[in-house]
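Q: Sequence in, structure out?
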Amino acid sequence: MMTLMERIESKIERVTESGCWIWTASCDTKGYGGICVDGEMRKVHRVVYEITTGAIPDGLQLDHLCRVRSCVNPYRDWE
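A: Exactly. Output:
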């Protein structure tokens, strides 16, 4: 059985020129990737951040400076 991160990795295309990790599966109407985790739909960029970095601090809005809504790279600069 695949781990959550393995599931996510299987749906990412890494764009080396920009550094973006593009989510290639379903996106909402605003362009953000979604994934079902424990029966709940979640935004993929938030899930990846939590897996790789830890809890999202209060007040931090995860908004990539790259402005690519389907990017899930947790190592990009955040605004």
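The beta strands are 12-15, 20-23, 34-37, 40-43.
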